[in-house]
Amino acid sequence: MTPPEVGAGDVDQVRVLERRLARERAARAEAEAVAERATSELYETVQQLTRSTRVAELLTEVAARANEAASVQQAARAALASVCGYTGWPVGHALVRSTIVPEALTSAGVWHLDDEQACAGFRAVSEELVFLPGVGLPGQILQTGAPLWAPELDMHDKFARKTSARDGGLRAGFGIPVLIRSETVAVLEFFAHEIRPPDEDLLRVVGFVGAQLARVLEREAAEERLRQLALFDALTGLPNRMLLMDRLRVSMERSQHDRSRVDVLYLDIDDFKTINDSQGHQAGDEVLTAVATHLSEAVRQTDCWGRPVPSTVARLGGDEFAIVLDDCPDPKTVAARIQKRLAEPLRLEANEVFLGVSIGTARAEDGAEPEDVLAAANVAMHAAKHAGKGQYVVFAPHMQVEARRRHSLGEQLHRAIDNEEFFLAYQPVVDLDGGQIIGVEALVRWRHPSGRVAPPDEFIPRAEETGLILPLGRWVLSQACRQAALWRQQFAADFSMAVNVSGRQLREPDFLELVRSTLRTTGLDPGDLCLEMTESILMEHDDGAIAMLTELRQDGIHLAIDDFGTGYSSLAALRRLPFDIIKIDRSFVSALPEDDAGTIAWAVVRLGHTLDICVLAEGVETAEQRDALVSFGCDRAQGFLFGRPLPPEELEGLLAAQALPRTSAAVTRPRAARPTGLRARPSATPPRPRSVQRHP
Q1: How confident is the model at residue 5 (pLDDT cuts 50, 70, 90)?
Q2: Alpha-carbon gap, residue 353 to 345, rounded angstroms
Q3: Share of the chain above pLDDT 70, in %
């Protein structure tokens, strides 16, 4: 059969159909490829979402457990369990900085183990080792601060636990650092039973876990710092008052059950203020730190049969310390050992200092509160201070009565200042050459609300302790200067106004300006003012105080040493201190004209005149005493023989009754203006008392 003829048009149509079919096949193939890519991308997206969800769940779980954890160990254990559950790795272990070798890592004893029995050997070895920087898997992480992956532990040249790991069936491992401000403070390490190639994503995820744990560590460190600040003294590191009271309470509660004794020693460094003032606060801090160390060393384990002794030593504040002694048979022995230890010279960076300590002790009685026991020991310590410092005193009930009296006196003095209950009485000072009044001493008195007038001895010591001497001293200085200026106008008399100054006033940095401003305000000439202070106060002060007194002296103000002979002045100190009047203490005057008393009084007069210093005797009550002083060449005197302390209006009568020439022997000009001295002494030396005459 003959095939039909195919025309040109048919050929063209076939070609069109073939091209169309090819295009359809290409389109179908492209569609299949697109569908395949979409399916693959969708699958990958689903996988990523799944991993992200698991990572998010992991981090959320770790964060939640970390926030709920009561300790870092609990938080680390939870973190290990979470990571091992996420990765499927069976072993997790936490290491921390060593307390013995701070630059190394040791096991924290925190593990996650799927099979504790199989990994017992690996655990034991891991907990025994100390990993220095660069040593072992943890040491390398510590050195670099970066994660580390060991795909095959047997092939890792620095893995130190190969044998124990192999015995436990562990083949691969990795670790990550726990960083706080770029410092590796811990390491988390994980181990698997099969060889595992490095997984950067896993390292990154576990790194986030380490960051969570770092926040827990940082939080605990901050809380520990707060506990230290709240319970321990920042300077010495000793427990503070709060912690001491807590431990004292525990000791007292325990003593109720076992009938043991509890004692508290209360210690105060003698004259610590002088060290601060003379050598600076840095030296003072050195002293406090050294005392804390000596106290901790002086109290022995065998002194107490209760808790460890070092925890019983505390710093209460300032220069005060306390020690709680549990069931100590003899607290006095402990106190004596402490005083002996602190009596040794203490070497500072610049020099040596010698310390004394006053100690009071009290025993906890049944039914007492911890605050009562500490307060009783404090009262006993103050009794030791009043007994002469460097003493040991056991609390007795009468001390509490005295302490309450002193506290009440302090409150009364506060009210007395507010209510203006103080007034001044003025005792005449006479020139022994002519018997004329050439000055007065201002003496403060307290008119008590009961009507009784209290002398200074009853309230001045307490005013110094409480600091009330400062406002009281300012008032006395102002009143005395104002009165002296008024008398100068009324009687045109040249005489000096003597005002007593306490050691507390001299320690005030503005004392110099206070005196100058008072003189300006009252209009009193500096040459008419004399400031009196005891020799012990002068001897205790540093060069700064002496420089201040020198400035006052240069202003024309006169300076007197009161109660001379009762302190510890030396000839070198007498020449160094800027005063121009010596007051012979009444204890050397009262026995005159006895030979022994005369010897001392005569010697003081000769010493004063040799140094070109005016000499004034106080407490003169009889004509015989006056005559003896005149025979010694003494310049001035005051006492009941010449006049008792008088109110201003009564003293004015005495001033009006005598005509005082302006050229009297009164102290009106500085010593430098009168090279021959403050008085015109006779050329002949006054005879010595018979007891000191030379025998052939």
Answers
A1: low
A2: 6
A3: 82
List the one residue out of 293, 292, 297, 275 whose CA is nearest residue 350: 275
Structure tokens at 351: 């020099």
Alpha helices, H only, 240-280: 241-258, 272-279
**Contact (CB, 8 A) for 383 and 262:** no
Structure tokens at 688: 């010595």
Please give the helix or strand (H or E) that residue 164 lies within, else none: helix 162-167
The dihedral built from the CA positions of residue 151, 153, 157 and 158, taken in this order, carries a sign that is: positive
Contact status, residue 555 vs residue 286, Cβ threshold 8 Å: no
Helix-helix angle 200-231:241-258, to 10 degrees: 80
How does strand 346-347 pair with strand 320-326?
unpaired
Judged against a pLDDT cut of 80, whether residue 117 lies above it is answered with: yes
Please report the pLDDT score of residue 686 as a whole number. Answer: 57
Q: How many CB atoms lie within 10 A of CB 455?
A: 13
Mapping DSSP to helix (H, G, I), strand (E, B) and coil, where does residue 381 land?
A: helix
Terminal-residue alpha carbon distance, the chain: 188
- CB atoms inside a 10 Å sphere around CB 414: 13
Sign of CA dihedral 620, 622, 626, 632: negative
| Residue 226 pLDDT class (50, 70, 90 cuts) | confident
Per-residue pLDDT reduced to its tens digit, 148-202: 999 999 988 889 899 999 999 999 999 999 998 889 999 999 999 999 999 998 9
320, pLDDT greater than 50 = yes
Q: Which of 324, 194, 346, 201 is nearest to 269 (CA)?
A: 346
Q: Evaluate the omega torsion of the peptide bond into residue 593 and state whether it is cis, within 30 degrees of 0.
A: yes
Q: pLDDT by residue (tens digit) across 272-294?
A: 887 877 777 888 888 999 999 98
Class of residue 148 by CB neighbours under 10 A (exposed 0-12, middle 13-18, buried 19+): buried
- Partnered with residue 532 across adjacent β-strands are 500, 560
Q: Looking at residues 20-29, what average pLDDT do you find?
A: 70
Q: How far is Cα 211 from Cα 191, in angstroms, rounded to an integer?
A: 20
Lowest-pLDDT choice from 13-22, 44-53, 264-273, 594-603: 44-53
- Exposed (0-12), middle (13-18) or buried (19+): which is 249, by Cβ within 10 Å? middle
Cα–Cα distance, 366 to 521 (Å, whole number):
60
User: What is residue 191's predicted lDDT score, i.e. its pLDDT?
Assistant: 96
Q: Which residues, listed in sequence order, are joined to residue 599 by a DSSP beta bridge?
A: none
- Is 543 in contact with 506 (CB distance < 8 Å)? no
622: which DSSP letter? S
Strands 105-113 and 91-97: antiparallel
* Locus of tokens 């005196």: 515
